[in-house]
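User: I'm new to structure prediction. If I give you an amino acid sequence, what do you actually give back? Let's try with this one:
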Amino acid sequence: MNSPVAQFRRIVAVVLLGCMGAAQPVAEPEQPAAPAPGHETEAETVARCLKEMASPDVQARRRAILVLGKYENPQADAGLLAALGDEDAQIRRSALVSFSERRGIPLAAQNRILELIADPDVHVRRIASSMLPELLFRTRLSVGAVETDGDDDAPPSRRLVPPAKADDRVGTLLNEALKDSDPTVVKNVLAAVSTMPGSLGLDRVLDCLASPDREIRVLALQVVRRSPVRKEKTVADQLAPLTKDTDETVRRELAGALSRCGAAGIPVLRTLAEDPAPAVRAEACRQLVLLEDESSPALLAKLLVDPAVDEDIRAQLVGQLVLFDGPVVELLRKLAGEGPASVRAAAIRTLGNRRFAQQAPPPDFFLALLADPQLEIRTAAVNGLFAVSPRLSEEDARRLCRSKYPDVRQACLGHVRLLPAPQAQEILLDACLDDDLDVRCTALLQLAIARIPDWEDILAQSLQDPDPRVRATALNGLGLGRSSPKAVAHLVEYLKTCDDPDTADQVRRLLGRAQRQNGTTTRPIRPVVRPPVAPNP
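Assistant: Good question. You get back a string of structure tokens that encode the predicted 3D arrangement of the chain. For your 537 residues, that looks like this:
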């Protein structure tokens, strides 16, 4: 009988017998069973793998290394570090794979892995070079450049190499790796040096431009673009043959690299500005503008009306017209009236730039654009209008507030408050009844900001609006700035009927702030605690 009641009775009986000093011996508790074969602790697993690494069997050593890679402790790290110098390439590869799967490469392994980018085995070089981004980032921060004691089997010391010494050693390794016969290694090196600009010799990088691999040429040009160039004319002459490269991406990156050559790169950039590929022409034109070349205004004007050039690129280039004098405003007005929306919007925004304050079109130009069906155009027109004419006439304000587009009506309200109070009050009160929620909320807030007559009563009525956003706007408006006595009175009345705890807390905070502003309450002053004075001896 194994019911709970029977079990409980047996337990009580044993306890009673023990208390009474019964002579019956109590059974010894069962000892836990020994661990099942194959189950071992982490320390035992690591110790077993370290022992297996001395095996002459390559596959046994390889299995041991892959298992050690799962554990992140000093003993496992030491075993993997020793495996990086193993005579068998498979073992070195396995150790690199184990390190690459870690959350972070141990500091002690950094130098060994860097040196493996010159390993005789191409697969080892590929894996080691793929780990360069993390290794070079650490070297750049002067962290992890660890010096060894000379004994390959001994764990490295924790003495940090001085940054200059570390950079020289790493630079030598990287420059030698650029001569690697394997394209993957070269690509990995070129892609990784962004964290250490200037670490590669420019001559070695320029040699990579003769590679038949298109990706190597692109990466090499990107490195040139980030590198300091001293012999500008020499470098520009070496880059010039790439204008005939069959790859469009190479020619586009060439324009960016030529910008490092300053004036020496301008003749080649002018050639690229006539390239058949629109993206190449755009990049060359951009660089010529930045170099302030005299041909750039005409090239830019031609490019901006070229339908073959991507509209987003053209929109980005429109803003560069502010750098030039001459008939720029006429070109901008042309761009604002026709073409893709992004280009038109960029031209409209540029027309509102203070650079063209004396040549800007009249307000009617922007007012007409506010009827455009595209939101992007209307937004740009609003910005341009208020840049050239911050104050609206009453007639223009009323016309904009009757626009069929809510965004136009809302944008207009911020400038209505600059009108005389009677006109501003009338327009803002009409906007408080607008069908669009954003327009209504903006009108309420502008009433409070401008302190339009009777604004407190209007906002108090809106505290009963069924929409929570309107109520929140009205509440914030009543507490805006230095609250008037009438606004405080409305807040007090609203607190009596407010049944929302969070809103009630907000009203109390607003009332407390109003009382402090009016000087009716004083903030508590923290008492000064002075140290006890020692009695005179």
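You can read the tokens as a compact description of the fold. Here is one thing that stands out. Confidence is low (pLDDT under 50) at residues 4-36, 142-166, 521-530.
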